[in-house]
Design goal:
Blueprint: E1 13-16, H1 22-28, E2 39-43, E3 50-51, E4 61-67, H2 71-92, E5 103-104, E6 107-108
Antiparallel strand pairs: 1-4, 2-3, 2-4, 5-6
């Protein structure tokens, strides 16, 4: 059964000062980055691009907080899990070739060659 991910509340934003990382801005604002419901990435205004928490904008920016409870946040989490799994498989089975490993509606998969 596919996981149902619905926005639980209106989008939250955080002010990220020029040269400051999104991670530091979130912590300074008292927004959790460690809990399962904490921030995973932020969305850059204007472009809508997802940025990891090491992102530091060149100008003060009001960025949208993206959590695992959102569709985009869950896709980021699944994509990251696919990379962790691929690295583990390569460490356990040296010489394994990687195919593709995209996030899908029900989770993620990886093709190994």
């Amino acid at each position: 059964m596919p996981a149902s991910v619905e926005p639980s509340q209106p989008a939250q934003t955080v002010t990220v000062a020029a040269g400051t990382t999104a991670f530091d801005a979130l912590r300074e604002a008292g927004i959790d980055v460690n809990a399962p419901t904490g921030a995973i990435v932020v969305r850059e205004p204007g472009t809508g691009a997802l940025k990891d928490l090491s992102w530091a904008p060149g100008a003060d920016t009001e960025a949208e907080i993206v959590t695992a409870e959102s569709r985009d946040g869950l896709a980021v989490l699944r994509h990251s899990a696919a990379h962790v799994m691929a690295q583990a498989v390569q460490e356990l089975f040296p010489g394994t070739l990687l195919g593709i490993g995209p996030p899908i509606e029900d989770g993620f998969y990886y093709d190994f060659l």
